[in-house]
Each structure stands twice: as C-alpha cells, then as structure tokens.
Amino acid sequence: MLGCAGARRRSENGTPWRPAAGVRPTPGSRELGPLEVSPLGLGCMSMNSGNYNPPMDRHEMIRLMHHAVDRGVTYFDTAEAYGPFVNEELVGEALAPYKGKVVIGTKFGFDIDYATGRRTGGLNSRPAHIRRVADASLRRLRLEAIDLFYQHRVDPTVPIEDVAGAVKDLIAEGKVRHFGLSEPGMKTLRRAHAVQPVAVVQNEYSLLWRGPEAEELAIFEELGIGLVAWSPIGLGFLTGTIDEHTRFDRPGYTDYRLTNPLFTPEALRANMPLVHLLRDWARRKDSTPAQIALAWILAQRPWIVPIPGTTNPQHLDENLGAVAVEFTPEELRELNAQAGRVVVHGERLRKELLVMSGREAPPPTRDRR
C-alpha cells in the first residue's frame, strides 16, 4: 500500500507532482489469466482498515473509487478480513453503479468470529466455512457472483484439494467466477490448479521484494496464471517519501510498518540506495520514483497487474501515470542490473506473517467433503 499518511510526493525538481491538465482515462488493458483488466488495479484495504493510515471518510473513499473508474481502473481488491467486513461493504456500495463494468477480487481463509467481527489469529479454509464466507461477501459486495475469490493464505490443516473443490462447487452454482490463491507454496498451487484452474495468484512483488523471480513467475507463465502484485511500491518506501527519520507510531491508529523489519531506522538507512536509484531514473524519465517502481513491474510480464493502494486522489493519478512510462529493452536491462546490485536489508514481513507465505497444504484426503 502507499506511503505515509498525508505524505505528498514530489517530482525531482521539488515541486508537488500534479497530473497533466485535463486528466484522461488510463489507456490499455491486460490479460490477468482469463480476465481482462486495467494495467493497474486499486488496493482498497487502507481505506478503512487503519493499517497504514487512520480510517478515512466513507464518502471521500467512494468518490475516490468513482474517480478510479473514470480514469479507467477496472480491478478493485478487497477481502472480508479487511476491517473485518467493512471494506467489502465500502467497495460494494461504491461500485454498485458499475456492476458488470469492473472486476472485484475478494478473499476468504482467515478465522473470524462472525458474532464479534474479531479475527482469532488463525486460519479457516474448511469447505463449509468457504461457502459461508462466499454468501456473506456476496451480500456485502452487492453482487450475484464474485469475480475473483482468493484463498487469503494456505490453511495448514485443510488439503488444498478440499479448498479448490469447494470453490469449484461455488463456480458451478454461479456464485463465483474465478479462483485465486494468495502467497501459496508452488506445490500447493499445482495441486489446486489440477482440481479447479487457478486464474490468478496474488503475491508481494516489487523492486524491494523480488522473490517471485526465483521460480514463481516461470510457473505462473507455464500454467497461464496471472499475477496481482500487492505492495508494488514497497509499503510506500519506493515513493521516496520515507527515510531513516520517518516514524510510524502515529496516534489514533496502528501503522503496520511500526513492527515490519524493513521499516526499522537501520533497515531504512541501509535500503536508501534503492530509493536513490529510483530518483535517478525518475529524472531520466521525467516522472516520479513511484511511477518508475510501478512501470518496472509492468515491464516484467504482460500478465502482471500491480494494485497500489491509496486514499489520496492525487496519488491515484500519479500511480496511473506509470502506464505512460516506457523502457527500451536496453534501459530495462540496465535498470534490472542496477537494482540487482542493491542488497535489501530486513525481512519483508514479521515472523508470524512470513510463516504464512509459501506454505504447502497438507496431503489430500479421500473424501474432500
């Protein structure tokens, strides 16, 4: 998601970044597995979950999503766990006028007490629970069918065949259109894909975290699976608005970055060479560091869609400006080589979250029901 609450990005001449007069819709589309969507989507989590900024005014966030649609954004990302529940309600209200014109992705898989709305801290991908989540998400999102239904994290107690089978049933019933996984192990991905084709994987991917390049991108390409890249500008670090003096202990809400190993003063200081590199390229391309970071992702594969989140219309316009930033093959090789020489310091997630990424599901049982 995007950087510090209230932080304003600036172009390299020091003036606040502004979109060109008469901002036009963002051109083009991408094939995200079987889906056709805009080159950039919009991550909606921060609009009222309070993970990176205070919960925002509902009406302002609805206007922001309408502005995104006007700019050509057609993919919006949410989850029942964001809030919980309230983010789906917000997205459902905002996008109800655009039914059939946008793609909404939501997620299941965390164990949430429906009576209190509290997350227990555990996971729950039992088939009966998946069905319950789907029905509740449909109501909150005001949809007849969920466009893209992800397992939020692999449940270590439920075979992925059971999960994929449950979603396959929901697809057959017309309640879900496409199946997705978030941060799965690659063996688990293949097993799920054999039961119900996986349309999209949602993984973290950015110049700050290039882990998917080791094997995952090749597997996605082999299987025809699209990638939705979350945290594509490194939780705001790649915007250039954060340095070792930035603090995240803000009153009124809990900023997730306060306990993220990448955002200690020591890690921020050690990772500044990556920001300096982006600033250099921003000067070369008459753009901003954030636009370079997003354009770099778009240049990696034609089936990758970044979903930077924001609560600021100006930042939204800036992000969408990345679509106009192009690299020649020589420039892309140069940028990749330069970025590859930067050693990133700090784990990308806290230990209790990191253990949920790349996890493999237990072996299948004979009867998935």
Brief summary:
This protein has 369 residues and is α/β, with parallel strands linked by helices. It is built from 12 helices and 12 strands. Helices cover 34% and strands 15% of the residues.
In terms of quaternary structure, what is this?
single chain
Roughly what percent helix?
A: 25-40%
Average of the residue pLDDT scores:
92
Helix/strand-derived class? alpha/beta
Biggest β-sheet description: 8 strands, parallel
Work out the number of β strands.
12
Task: Flag low-confidence runs.
Answer: 1-8
- Proportion of strand residues: 5-15%
What integer value in Å does the Rg equal? Answer: 20 Å
Sheet with the most strands: spatial strand order: 3-4-5-8-9-10-11-12
Number of DSSP helices?
A: 12
SSE succession: EEEHEHEEEHEHEHEHEHHHEHHH
Straight-line distance between termini: 37 Å
Q: What spatial form do the alpha-carbon principal axes imply?
A: globular
Itemize the secondary structure elements and their pairings.
Layout: E1 30-32, E2 35-37, E3 42-43, H1 58-70, E4 75-77, H2 86-95, E5 103-108, E6 110-113, E7 118-123, H3 127-141, E8 146-151, H4 160-172, E9 176-182, H5 186-195, E10 198-204, H6 216-223, E11 226-230, H7 265-270, H8 272-285, H9 289-300, E12 304-306, H10 313-320, H11 329-340, H12 351-354
Parallel strand pairs: 3-4, 4-5, 5-8, 8-9, 9-10, 10-11, 11-12
Antiparallel strand pairs: 1-2, 6-7
Helix pairs in contact: 1-2, 2-3, 3-4, 4-5, 8-9
Explain what you see.
The chain contains 12 helices and 12 strands. It is of the alpha/beta class. The strands form 3 sheets. It has an 8-stranded parallel β-sheet with strand order 3-4-5-8-9-10-11-12, with helices on one face. It has a two-stranded antiparallel ribbon with strand order 1-2.
